[in-house]
Each structure stands twice: as C-alpha cells, then as structure tokens.
Amino acid sequence: MLYYTMRLQTNKNYVYYLKTSSTCVVVLGGFWYLYQLRQISQIVRSAVNTNVLKLEEMHPQYIYIDDPQFKDISMFRKDENLYRSALDKPQGLSDILMKWWKVYSHNLAYKLLYMAQHGNRNERCKAVTVLGSLSHLKNWQYRHLAQMLDVKTAVALARIPNVNLQFFLQPPYYHVQYKLHDVLEKVHSLLLVLNTLCDKTHPCLTQFLGKNFKDMQRDGFIFDHDLTSMGLSVAPVTVWDNTLLKSCVQAICHHSSLEEYSKHLVDAGALPILTAIQKICKDDTEVCILLARIISNVSLHSEYLENIFESGWIGILSHWSRSDDIRLSAQAYRALANLDAEGNEGAKYPRRIYLLHPLHRNHAATKMDVVFLHGLLGGIFVTWRQRDTDISTLGVVGGNTPSQTTDYLSTMIDDDRPPEFFKDLARDLQLREWKKIGHDFEVILEDCPQNTNSHPYEPYFYRGDDPCMRNGPELASKTQCWPKDWLPMDIPSLRIMGINYDTSLSMWTPFCPIESMKSTIKERSEEYITKLIMANVGQRPLVWVSHSMGGLLVKKMLVEEWKTGDKNDICKNTRAIVFYSTPHRGSHVAALKQTTQMLVWPTVEVQELREESPQLLQLHEEFLEMLKEYPIEIVSFAETKSTLVTALKFPFQFVSLDSADPGVGEFFEIPQDHISICKPASRQSFLYQKLLSVIRRQFNPRKEGKALSSIRYLLSLPRTERERCAQRTRHFGHSPQTHQTR
C-alpha cells in the first residue's frame, strides 16, 4: 500500500513538471513569434513604403474648437496655462447637450435628406427647410450629403436663405487650370456650333463671328495661336485677351435671349465652357452678370434641369444670389425660381420678368400680385430706386443736429474713444428719447401733394410711434429697389414682380434686327402679356404700378385682354392701377419738327408719345370704356417740377398736369420732377404710403369700400349735418372710423 502511494505521488510530480515546462515553452514560443513578426515587419517597411496606403484616408480640412476656454488661445503667456485649461475642462450640462446635439444632428441630416427625396410634397418642403438650417455638421458630412443630393433637393436647398454652400459640389474638372487661349478656342468653337444650329438666321451672331474672328480661318484650317510663338505663322489681327472673352460672353448672352435659340446652348455643350469662364472671371462682376443671365435664359427649359445640376451651376447660382450687386443677385434668383418648379407653383419667369419677392421658398400663401413697369429709358433698378435724401431738411424743429450732439458729448466726457463711438451714442440717445415722446407727435409725410381732385381720401400724417417711423432711412442702408425691400416689410403676403425692357430715343442706336420688330406699344403689350401668363399672373388679385410710358403699356395690355373676352382673367383680377406721371394724352417732348426728326431719327416709342396722339387718345377712350365693366381703383401722381436735362441743366416738364390726369380716380400733384416722382426718399413718403394704403385696402375690398363710401358721404354733407351724424354715432356706439372722420 505504501508502495502505491509513493508511486502516485511521483506521477503527480511528473505531471506538474510537465505542465510547468509546457507553459514555459508556450510563453517563450509566443515571444519568439512576436520577435520574428517584428523583424519581418521592419524588413517589409524598409523595402516597401506603406504610406501610399493612406492616400485614400479622409482627413478633416478644419479643426473645430467649440470650447470657449480656447477662444483666446494666443493670449496665454505660459504653456502650463494652456495645459491646465485642457485638463480642468468642466463637463457641464451644456457640454453634454452639445455633444448629444452633434450626434443627433448628424443622424437627423440623413433622415431629413431621405424625407426630402421620398416624402410627399408637404414632407419634402419641411424636410428641405430644416435640412438647410443645420449648421453643426462637419466638412465631410456636408460633402457626403452633397454627393447624395438629387437635382430637385439641390435646387430646393439653394432657395433656402443662408444655406451652407458646402451642400453643393463644385463643377466637374473645376480644379483644372485653364489658360485664356484655351478657353477662347472653346468659346470660338461654341459660337460656330451655335451659328450652325440656328442655320445662320441670327444676323448678330454671324456679324460678330465675321468681325472678331475673321483671321481664324486661313487656307481651310483653323489658325493656332501656339504657332506664333514658334515663328511658323504671322500673328493674327485679333488680340486674344480678356476684352475679347467678355465680348464673346456678351454675344452668347444676346443669342440666348432669343427663346428659340437658348435651347441650343445645352445641345452645343456650353455649360462646361461657361463654368470655365466663371472660374477665370469670378472677380469680374460684369462677366458674372452676363453668365447669370445666360443660365437664367436656359432655366426656362425644364428638360435641361439635370444638365444644369450636373455641370455644377446650382451652387454657383446660390453663391451669386447673396451678392451685394442687385443686378447679379436678381438674375441668380430668377434662374433658381425657374428651376424650382415644385416650390414655385409651376410659374416661369422669362426674360425681362424679374421676381422681386419672395426670393426664397415661401411657406405662407401669396394673396396678391404687384407688377411694376418702368418708363422710357428706365429700368427696374434705375426707376424704382430710393431717392437721395436732403439731410439739411431733416430733424425736429428747434432740436439739435446729430453733429451738435456728438460735439457736446465729446466735450462732456473725457475719453479717448473715436468720434464714431459718440455718433452711435448720440443716435441711441435720440432714439431712446423719441420712443418716450414720439407718440405725442404727428409727423407730416414727405412729398405731400400740392393739389388734389375732389375724390382723394388719405391721411397726410402719421403718429410718431407708427411702424413706418421705426425703419426710416437713418436706420437702414439705402435701397436699390424700394418695391423689393420695403413692401415685404409692410405686407409679406405679396408676390412682387418687375418688367424690364429696353428702349431708345434714336434709331441711330445699334439694335438687334430680330428684336426691333417688337417696339410699338401694341407689340410690347402682346409680348408682356404672354410672359406674365407664364408667371401665373391673373390667378390672384393684381395691382399694377407704372411710371411714364409703363402706364400706357398697362392700359394697352388690359384693353387688349378686355377686347378678347379676358380669357386669362387679367382684367377681372386687376384691383388697382397706380400711375406715376403717365402721359395719357402724350407729351410735347416727343413733338419734333420735320427737320429735327431727320437728324434725330426718333424711335417708334418716341413717335407714339407725341402730344395729342390719335393712338393714345383712342387707347384712353377704350380704357375708360373697360373701367365701366371692371371697376378698378385708379390713383395718379403728376409732376409739378421741371426736370433738369442735358449738361446745361435745362429745365423741362416732360408730362403736363392735364396729360397726367386720366379723368378718373384719385389725382395728386406732387412737387417732384419726372425722374424723382417714382423714387420715394423714405418709407415716410406720401408716394409710398399712398401705394401701401391702396394695396392694403384691396385685401378686404368690401369692408374698406363700405367704410370709404360712408366717409365720402359724410364729407359731402354740410357741416351741421356732419356734426349731427357724429353725435348720433357717439350715442349708439358705432365704429370708430366715424369718430376719425369727424
């Protein structure tokens, strides 16, 4: 028994030694394996550069530091302060919420994109709006979303205000550095293709090619500019420079202005060439305006929407829409509105029709259209700009001027701060004081009429705390287009449009032979009615605002629609017309003697405006007949001052009072000249406030019409009768409008 016990103990010792030896072998073998693996790795690294495998790895372009402790990192004097701020970073509730929001917004962005692409119309609209408002995404997230965008979502995002431009990819091959000669060769080839596609029926394009590239075709082959540097050919007469490139862009723009030819640009492959021009001339505003006009002309054709998106123009248009130059931003907005058929109710804005409001996607319902038409030699951003204010006439009677207040503050306060500080302080003190006492004052409107007819009803003053007094010219920058900037502030539910057309005084001015066929008032009215119908004008209440010759075009459009049965409901939905110095009976300025006509060679527009023109008199008679069937509110402003013309400042009154009075509606004689009568100096001008009251009254015409008729009835009564009616009203507690009339 003892023998077996000792034998068992010996076997256990053997097993223990075996396990221990095996464990040591495994551990030592593992170390040996790792050592050999390390040696092999070093040999491979010395033979092959493995850094090439990291070329595809994405690196962030920027490092975002949201911690406010690192805001003034350059102000730390010692390195330990920086380390201490990083180690002692508090983990407060705001930090936790910020981290949670970043993760949530990341996931939310992709959900919103999916909803914007696959939801119903209401869901898509809401999803795009929220997606465009996200601002905590990283660079790579924006780029990833940009690659996932479809064309409709991209256009919708481009119409969101202040959207991040990283949502839009750059045009293909945008990184390629083109030389000017290479681009000019592409442009020349494009012009040749366009001339072929239109069968050489556009004389302007044919003439341009023959004049500017006459030395390009020699002995049956295209001349190469690189040959001149080698001495193998004679240098051409045409200089290939930026001036020639700009002339080529002007030629393409003019060719695209004809709707039947604008389709040819995409078929000829013009979009990539135009992006190359945009890259070279991105700092030249005039060239960018021409490019934006070309794209806006092409945007009328919805079948090319995908081509415009793939060529990268959506992001460029979104960038241009933020330009301070209104000529560039207006073209970009028009192009984006045409491309966004879903968010624009299918309306199209063809050439010469500009959308002034709403410029972005609007969720509120549009209740009324307001259309502006300028006069002879005018324009949207020329006729409807704000008038220069005479600062010497402003201020409260007996009050201190801002300069006097600034000087007083600078003497009372011993401080080394700049004068601008005291100017801002003086302005704040004046505004604070005006808020306290402004409600006790009545402010007379600017441009009050000198004389009126027996029909007008409108206040000529406002209380000091009226909303129109809160955003005066001293609180805002001068506007380049007051219908675009002022009307949406007072009545947001409007759609404001402007018609822009070219006019000239003399036939000596070069013009396009094709476009010259549409120069009479009748031909222009037919053209603009067709274009306004494309913009869905006539589907809601409408107000026309016109200056000079523009008023004649409005009358002609309405009369022609009335004669054809008003099939587009233009006359039916017209609520009011505002005439700013319109020559209903012509102007004696256009009355030229026969000898003078031979020298000046006046255009058709000038000839039609001559005083007592039979065509204008017949138009006015037909217009009055139309008003019997369609009761339209008429408001007219007439100039009483002469306009200083030519360099000699010769005074001349373009439209007489008799010609400016249509004989119907309200008539006001304003102490302004022909140019400034349609340019209010501020929102406190009678010229603007009267238009504003007309538009507001048309929102509820029955209620306002009833109140207006009762007020006119009271005004027609004798004084004793009016007092008796007022006493009766106070006794029975009727509406407060009668108290105001009394």
Q: Which oligomeric state applies? A: single chain
Low-confidence region ranges? 52-87, 218-234, 391-402, 592-602, 703-742
Structural class, by secondary structure, is alpha/beta
What share of the residues does DSSP label as strand, in percent?
A: 5-15%
Mean pLDDT: 77
The percent range for helix content is 40-55%
Spatial shape: elongated
Number of strands: 14
Order of neighbouring strands in the sheet with most strands = 3-8-4-9-10-11-14-6
Output the number of helix runs. Answer: 32
Biggest sheet statistics: 8 strands, mixed
The radius of gyration is 37 Å
Distance between the first and last residues' Cα = 137 Å
Structural overview:
With 742 residues, the protein is α/β, with parallel strands linked by helices. It is built from 32 helices and 14 strands. An eight-stranded mixed β-sheet has the order 3-8-4-9-10-11-14-6, sandwiched between helices. Strands 1-2 form a two-stranded antiparallel ribbon. The protein has a two-stranded antiparallel sheet with strand order 5-7. Helix 3 runs antiparallel to helix 4. The longest helix is centred in the first third of the chain and has 46 residues, at 2-47.
Brief account:
With 742 residues, the protein is an alpha/beta fold. The protein contains 32 helices and 14 strands.
List keywords for this structure.
alpha/beta; two-stranded antiparallel sheet; disordered C terminus; 742 residues; single chain; eight-stranded mixed β-sheet; 51% helix
